[in-house]
Structure formats: structure tokens, C-alpha cells
Amino acid sequence: MNNKHKDIIIIGAGLSGIGAACHLSQNHPNKSYIILESRKELGGTWSLFKYPGIRSDSDMYTFGYSFKTWDNPKSFADAPSILKYLNEASKEFKVNNHIKYQTKAISYNYNSDKNLWIVTTLDIKTSKESIYTCKFIFSCSGYYNYAKGYSPKFKGQSDFEGKIIHPQQWPEGFDCTNKKIVVIGSGATAVTIVPTLALKASQVTMLQRSPSYIGKWPNKDKIGILIKRIFSKKLAHSLIRFKNIIIQIIFFNLCRSFPQSMKKNIIKGAKKQLGNFPVDPHFIPNYKPWEQRFCLAPDGDFFKVIKEGKASIITEHIDHFKKNGILLKSGKMIESDVIITATGLDLLAFGGVEINIDSMPFDVSKSFVYKGVMLSNLPNFFIFVGYTNASWTLKIDLTNEYISRVINYLEKQNHAALKVKVDEDTLSPIPLLNLDSNYINRSANILPKQGDKIPWRLYQNYILDYKLLCIDKIKDEWVKFY
User: Fold this and answer.
1) pTM over 0.90
2) Taking phi first (over 0 means left), then psi (-120 to 50 degrees means alpha), and beta for anything else, what does residue 103 get?
3) Which top CATH class is 157-341?
4) Smallest Cα–Cα separation from 35: which of 50, 17, 52, 15?
């Protein structure tokens, strides 16, 4: 067999791609696969981002894999710990030998006669193109642009004489000691980066147009530690994982069902952490809890640096940049040596790859997502998109379980391919990502759509999605086999 033909091609060696490969090695050891990774190392997000303090904002018992225990005592891991975990999983399940680095997929073309995908790749080092073929594509490249983040153009930006940094392009070896720093933004990146910068900088100011919900959560799980003492490592991991899944589901549903009560409780919690620092207007968002992603402060680290005066928050609008800082519309001036634009991601569907069926262009923005794992009218193509309201990996694990069931079904029924068809007249399209965040709204027109009912819309609830993906029948009225 041509060594450039595989049963499965996995795009991306990040959390999703490594997880998919580990699942294949356990459940389908007879299937050949390769991981195409455009970068020099595995890890995806956790290898790309280098900004100070970068960590997961989901607990590692749910953000880690179901099949590999998390043994670090910290629930919220920093990037080096996550990379170590991913490398261990890759080694343990013999994934390393299947990764082809610095190889970027640039186009996919499905041949309907042969039921094969033809994947054209580019060697980043030599600029040479190669062709691979496969039965299935697992698209594990995430949904944001690895080349750049989103940075709005500010008036007078070129006048600023200091350094402007986007967290996605953090300069190696950058020293913030004794510098005056402004962090523009109020999302998870800003909440993560401010406490770390405050350890060395002379002044750190988080400048936000509007606040986000921020909550303290202990970085050491006392109940989890007790469970680990009582049960075996593997069983303890499963029990802690289940406990945390239930907590996530309860918290999210309380926020959606009782938004005003939950808003009061979240703000009350922030006030308790901040002491005399005013919560209004800096910690009172103008939207309901979980309409945008909820920010976690492990052990209250963000609140501590604000309370102790090591960092400050200003909630105002920018007028323009000046040579030595930022002038606000109120007339207030913030002097700064460094401006960090923690202003969000630039979304990119499927890594920007060109997709064709029988050499005819396929527009992903016009497709609907089926069960969160396939696109309408796109055969043998699986997408890996995690939860926005819970740990990313919970949904990725369900995706892998569903795909395993599909592969077994195809073999049992002697089918070569499947695709899903949708009657668009029966659906009302809604955005794929169910948050009202700016970075999602900016790019909604380039991403596939959800429908307004199951199976074209996910429950965003692990237990209900488990039934949908792991229990409900593979064959239904929307899936066509051939």
C-alpha cells in the first residue's frame, strides 16, 4: 500500500488531535492513520501561546482525557503541565510515530467514485506539495487563526513609543520588570495575565470597555484529594471527573434559568474577595451569566492583586494612543511602557483549508452541523469542536466515542461511506458557537451553522449529549450510507 494512503488523516496535533489518535490506538488498532501538524511540535494552543501565566480555565479532570488520569494536585494547570500531560499521552499510546510535523493541509477533495479523500499538503520547510489519500478526515485544527490574533486598530497607535503585544505573539524572553503595563481586554486571557504580570511590573492596569463575570475557584480540589485517598487512581479520576461534570452542568443551568439571582451571587462573591475595592462598574457586566464565557480565578489570584493594589481596573473607552500611553474619552491619561491587546481571537474555519467534492468547491458556511460532529453533505468528514460552556475535552471525548461507533457500523454493514443530509426548510439557522462574545460574532458568517433542533443542535449538556452520541442509534433519517 502507498505509504501516503491511510485509513484516517487527523489534522492537528493539539489536544483534540492527540486525543483522537489515542482513541484510535485503543479502539481501532487495525486502522492506519497519520497526524498532519503544521507546527514543529505537538500541543496546539498549549504550545503556541507563551504569555505569562497561561493556564486552563477548565479543571484538568474534565479538560484532560477520560482515559488518562490527571495526577497533578492543581486542578487548573499551566501550559507546561498540560504539554507534559499531552506528551505523556502521546508516548503512552504510541502516537508520536504517527505525527508528521511542519506539514500543512491546504486542500481536501473528495472523490465520490472511489470514496476517498485526496489531501494536498505543503511542507513548511521546503514549500513542496505532497498528496495523501484517506477514507476519513478528522478535522482537529480548532476554530481560530494560529497565525495571528484579533487586534483592533486604535487611533494614534503608531504614535505610541512603547511596545504593543498581542498575547498570541508574545515575544520570547520579554521582561516586564518595573514596567508600566496596560492590558486591554476583560476576557479569560486578561484575567489570566494580569496577576502574573503584577508580580514584577511596577504598574498593571486592566482597561476594559465592559466587565466580565469572574469567580474564584480553589486550585486544589479537597473532595478530589479525599477521593484519591480512598479509591484507585483510575477510579478516583473517573469519580472526580463525573463530580466536576455535574457541577459544571448545574452551574450553567442555574445561570441560564435564574440569571438575576446568579448575577447577584457572582457579584456578591467578587465583592467578598475585593474588600474595599468597588465592584461597580468594574465587576457588574451588562449581560446575563454565561451569555459570554465565564472567567475563573484559581484561588482568587485576580482578586488578590486588585485588592492588594498590585493591579488596577479602569472601565472606560479609549480615545486614542499617545506616545507615552492611552488617552481615555473621559480625558484621563494612562501612562504606559507596554500595551497588551488581549482583545480576542481571529476565527478561521478548519484552518483555512480549501474543501472540494469531486473538484467542486464546498462552502462550509452554508452547511449545518449534525450532532456537533459532521457537516451536512460532506462525506466521511468529522469535526472536533468542544464545549463553550464547559470543558472543551468533554465534547471531544464524546465525538471520539461516536466516531468509533460509526466505524464499527460501517464495517458491520459493509458500507464505505456516510454523509448527512438536511432539509433546510425545516430548520432555522443559529450560530455554531453559542456565546455572545465579540470574537464569535465577528466570524459567524464563515463558520457552519447549527439548526434550532436536535440533531442539528447540541444540548450543550454532557449527559444529554452522551445519550445522543453514545447511545442513540447510528442510523437515522438524516444519515445516508453507501
Assistant:
1) yes
2) beta
3) alpha beta
4) 17
